[in-house]
């Protein structure tokens, strides 16, 4: 199928409606902490039988994309991330909300998601085969180097005490070892507690760290009179200066997110942290980070959306789901008789040239 024919197929009314429904459901799921796009996609997978393969898979992809943006809403407004990929958004987004710029932060997240999503989809169509070959060349040494790079980036997030940041990262690694070993099947640090066999869930831990802290602070400030800030309708949108500052992080986050999406693991979460670390270290307004810098919202939110399309490259070109949502998409494809992998790309190119599939 040629690119033009594929575009005409996706622009059919039923497919656009399926995309709208999926994005809407995904946004609502992202707003609700702890639900997650993976469980929602799994629950709605039977609907693809009635919708058909094209509309059904478009709906599932829309849920995944919508959840990445929906998680930013609670991160910005109430300092509770709805999704793990929106954790870093709380660092600057909530500070902007307390200064009366919540609307600007939400708009920057929406625009960044759209810009990076568009960039990543175009990159997916153009560079899927060569990038899939590059991802296939990764081995154990490369994956270890990437994990080490992630720890180094985490240790540079605070910008104050590297020792405290590195300790925080190491404690996180120690907590991640609790549970059942995925390779050997051995119980690690469970102390015969059945609930610890699955380890510590990332979203509940984050909700506790951010949400409980915010509740306790609200209780402490209950006797204090808080002046409600009056916000004009115009203040709900970014200013020209904020838009100008947001565009470069959006494009950088789109590129970084797409490349990180090629790697196994929680690519959307890692992409948002990498984008934030980059903007904080090399951005033009580094001094504003920690007080509500809009770059710290636009970049990470662009990166986690771009990572979604990046995760589709190994799925479609290699048949390997590197993240739980792509595993659900793989199930949907196989249910409808589509087997992702190198043959899918090869056969698609042949049909696009008008050659029979069997040649």
Concise description?
This protein has helices at residues 3-10, 13-31, 37-44, 47-51, 53-77, 89-98, 102-136, 140-154, 162-176, 202-220, 240-260, 267-282, 295-318, 324-335, 342-352; strands at residues 179-180, 187-188.
Please provide a written account of the structure.
The chain has helices at residues 3-10, 13-31, 37-44, 47-51, 53-77, 89-98, 102-136, 140-154, 162-176, 202-220, 240-260, 267-282, 295-318, 324-335, 342-352, and strands at 179-180, 187-188. It has 359 residues and is mostly helical. The chain has one domain (3-139, 235-352). It is globular, with a radius of gyration of 21 Å. The chain is built from 15 helices and two strands. Strand 1 and strand 2 form a beta hairpin.
């Amino acid at each position: 199928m040629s690119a033009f024919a594929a575009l005409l197929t996706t622009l059919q009314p039923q497919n656009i409606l399926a995309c709208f429904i999926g994005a809407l459901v995904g946004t609502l799921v992202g707003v609700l902490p702890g639900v997650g796009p993976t469980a929602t996609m799994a629950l709605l997978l039977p609907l693809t039988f009635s919708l058909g393969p094209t509309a059904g898979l478009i709906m599932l992809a829309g849920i995944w994309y919508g959840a990445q943006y929906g998680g930013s809403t609670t991160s910005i407004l109430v300092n509770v991330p709805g999704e793990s990929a929106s954790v870093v958004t709380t660092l600057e987004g909530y500070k902007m909300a307390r200064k009366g710029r919540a609307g600007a932060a939400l708009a920057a997240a929406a625009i960044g998601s759209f810009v990076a999503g568009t960039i990543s989809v175009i990159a997916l169509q153009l560079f899927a085969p060569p990038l899939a070959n590059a991802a296939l060349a990764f081995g154990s040494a490369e994956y270890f180097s990437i994990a080490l790079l992630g720890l180094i980036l985490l240790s540079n997030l605070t910008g104050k005490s590297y020792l405290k940041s590195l300790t925080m990262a190491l404690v996180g690694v120690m907590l991640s070892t609790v549970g059942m070993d995925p390779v050997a099947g051995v119980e690690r640090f469970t102390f015969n507690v059945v609930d610890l066999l699955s380890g510590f869930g990332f979203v509940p831990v984050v909700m506790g760290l951010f949400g409980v802290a915010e509740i306790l602070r609200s209780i402490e400030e209950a006797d204090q009179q808080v002046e409600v800030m009056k916000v004009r309708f115009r203040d709900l949108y970014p200013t020209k200066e904020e838009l100008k500052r947001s565009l470069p992080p959006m494009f950088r986050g789109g590129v970084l997110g797409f490349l990180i999406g090629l790697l196994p693991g929680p690519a959307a979460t890692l992409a948002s942290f990498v984008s934030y670390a980059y903007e904080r270290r090399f951005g033009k307004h580094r001094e504003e980070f920690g007080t509500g810098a809009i770059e710290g919202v636009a970049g990470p939110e662009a990166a986690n959306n771009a990572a979604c399309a990046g995760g589709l490259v190994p799925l479609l070109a290699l048949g390997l789901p590197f993240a739980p949502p792509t595993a659900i998409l793989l199930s949907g494809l196989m249910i409808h008789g589509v087997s992702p992998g190198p043959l899918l790309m090869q056969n698609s190119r042949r049909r696009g040239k008008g050659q029979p599939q069997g040649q």
